[in-house]
Amino acid sequence: MATSIRLTIKSIYKNLTPKEQSIADYILKEPQKVSHSSISDIANDLNIADSTFFQFTKKLGFSGFKDFKMALLTSDDYQNSMTTIHQGITQDDDELEMAYKIFDSNISTLLDTKKLLDKQKLKDAVDFIDHSDRLFFFGVGGSEIVASDAYHKFLRSPVNVVHNADYHIQLMEASMMTEKDCALLISHTGKSKETIQLAEVAKKNSAKIIVVTSQIQSQLAKLADIVFTSISEETAFRSEALASRISQLSILDAIFTILMFRNAAGSQTSIGKIREVINKIKE
């Protein structure tokens, strides 16, 4: 299926209405049929009006059904997806097959997320961080693990970074932010009430807001100055939220590396100081 269509659907799916989700499911399940059907045929299959499907294609960013159908027919990724359908883990799989499928899922997650990266967003995000007095990392639950990892990384940069695992302290930190600070918030669904509250407090204080989420139409994403979308594949006993971590970590790795190369001299100094003190305890 066309990458733009498949990934866009995945990134907005949880924010769709039940009727829109049924349309999305149909497109994801029957891409070949959709690409060779008229809008009336599809509408009949779904028991909806032609105009309902037409409006859905517009929600995906297309000018209409013809534009949507052309994208579906001409995409290389669409052609590839017809022969490389991901198979979920089953009870009959042996240990090695299960491990392979987890690796395949992670590879798919990274490749899909990579396709959504935007050069200008990466540049703007690094600009925000580079020109901020302080960079705050916020995350709750599983997302806190990603925030903590990012904090551990960015401590090696010339940037003044702040992070605490306790939500109440995060909220207190957000309340002390200013227009000279930058907040980086991580949330798979973008619906975490705690993370949304953190973003609202930071925004009220005019801080720059960068969000990493899998749902581009979420309430959290709407509060952001810049949104990075992470795409994940769900497998047996592993939710999308758990699978999304590898893509979130990779997005933050990319931002960190760009920042370090931009500030090569300062980065070498900060890394040197950290290596010097860490090496002392390894001797």
Shape: globular
Strand/helix succession: HHHHHHHHHEHEHEHEHEHHH
**Number of domain modules:** 2
Instruction: Kindly estimate the percentage of residues that lie in beta strands according to DSSP.
Output: 5-15%
Pfam families: HTH_6 (PF01418), SIS (PF01380)
Organism: Enterococcus alishanensis
Keywords: DNA-binding, Transcription, Transcription regulation
Protein name: MurR/RpiR family transcriptional regulator
Q: What attributes characterize this protein structure?
A:
Arc Repressor Mutant, subunit A; Rossmann fold; 5-stranded parallel beta sheet; 5 strands; 8% strand; globular; RpiR-like_SIS
Overview of the molecule:
It is built from 16 helices and 5 strands. With 283 residues, the protein is of the alpha/beta class. It has 2 domains: 3-81, Winged helix-like DNA-binding domain superfamily/Winged helix DNA-binding domain (Arc Repressor Mutant, subunit A); 119-282, 3-Layer(aba) Sandwich (Rossmann fold). Strand 4, helix 13 and strand 5 (226-229) form a beta-alpha-beta unit. It is globular and about 70 Å long. The termini are far apart. Residues 82-86 have low confidence and may be disordered. Residues 3-79 form the HTH rpiR-type domain.
Q: What's this, in brief?
A:
With 283 residues, the protein is of the alpha/beta class. Helices cover 61% and strands 8% of the residues.
